[in-house]
Amino acid sequence: MIAYEAAPGERVVLSGSRVVPTRWELSVDPSTPLPPPAAIPGNRNQNDDLGFRVDLYSRQLWMTKLPDGIFDDGYFPFQMPNFSNEEFDQSIWPARWKGRIPYSLPRGILFQDGRRMAQLATYEDLVRLPGSYWVAPDGKTVHIHPFDGVNPNGRLFEAAVQGHIIQPQTAGLAYIRVSRLILEDCANGFGEGALSTMGNDHWIIEDNTIQHVNSVGIEMGHYPHKGQSGRPDPDPGHLIVRRNRIYDCGTAGMHGPAGPHGLVEENEVVHCGWQDVEYHWEVAAIKLFGNDGTLVRNNLIADMQGGDAIWLDWDNQNSRVTGNVIQDVSTMQGAIWVEASGQQKANMVDNNFMWNINGEGVRIADTDNTIVAHNFFANVSEELVMAKVATDRTLHGRKLTSTGNQFVNNIVVDQDKPILLEDKSNVADYNVYVSTHTGKTAWKDSGPHSLAIHATVGFDEKQLLLTWASDSSLPVVPVVKNCIADVFRRQRTTDQNLPGPFLGLVGSVTLQLHDAIQVPWETPSD
Hints:
The chain is an all-beta fold and 526 residues long. It has three domains: 1-16 and 162-238, no CATH class; 22-159, Immunoglobulin-like (Sandwich), CATH 2.60.40; 262-517, Pectate Lyase C-like.
């Protein structure tokens, strides 16, 4: 195996940005005709009479022209859209967004003193937002409204100019480990990764920090990548992605066809999806497809905008999503989505903790035989679980259905919308529904063993501290096959098995979820 890693005790930063060396001048209004109106005979106005420059829009705005010398290998991201017309022509799903913002915006990013600035589509809007920039049609001139209204001269400005930070030159390169590196400031297009395996297999990606990325943090997969033919591989997949900190990525934290026997564990994926392009259909904190025997466990996912937390997409078999802590997700779909799967071998979603989900809890549309067990849900705005036929697609020659799914042994806090189990073969039972509001009884499913109780429930999102107090005892529930321990590795037995992911949820208790996921939590800083 070939290893690329930081030497012991060293801090290695691989940056895709370059320092902007040019001087900043007050921004000239791009709509001002040239020559200025005062130079046109017989054309005078009040600004001219008073001696003002008519070509300046605001003294808050500045401009400079990025020199060609900061760009490498003919890659000019400030002239390239996030998603090109050619890519739209090859993609069915996002076709209705062709020519629309932010797909049409340039993929280059600006940073002021290490802080990512927000790109705007309209020059006139710059005055409204400190810390923003606009790229002129020439793809070289940038206009800015600096953070804190400062004079940008003497401040550090950097432009992200690389489409990847690490990527092999060709497909067919396997058995590579990337460890303990900091990868940052990447101007990649939608769907492309700052760290890309180039469609290769048997990689280990561990203990890295990947941050400030225009699109995807880690792109992985086992197929020939983007039209390049690699060696036929009789044993694809086998990707290990663990203990990485993925922060401030515009679309996905990681995505790709992980293939058979993938392991994604103990990663921290925070503040991703800020491009808010969910209907690009490649957006999630963790999106993997074609999984067979893949394990996604003990990851921390927080502050995900416009995408799922975890998405297993298309023909997943014998794969498991377990022990993850998921908080503050805004999605049109589900915090966890298992899509178009389970016809051959069942998948499992268990022992996960979900808090503040603006969207569905678990989406298993077009999916059969998924077991959703021993999870903790709180403050889910839409359907808790969605099991229905959503499309008319086929898989392995058979129309997709949504049958044989189980929703059992879960704890649900303050849920207003019910579950949606379209087919009668889907089962919901042995769940506990909690109301934290005095005088309000929690909604519950129709399972004969499900019940509603009152409790006081709180969660410190920074410290990952869960507090629980209830006069009602949780009932003993049947043991689910292959779900034999809680998130703290305590064994479940027939006479000691409680709903939810925590066997210790008894009476009044405080639980530290750090200990469950093994991920060191630090509040991200700009």
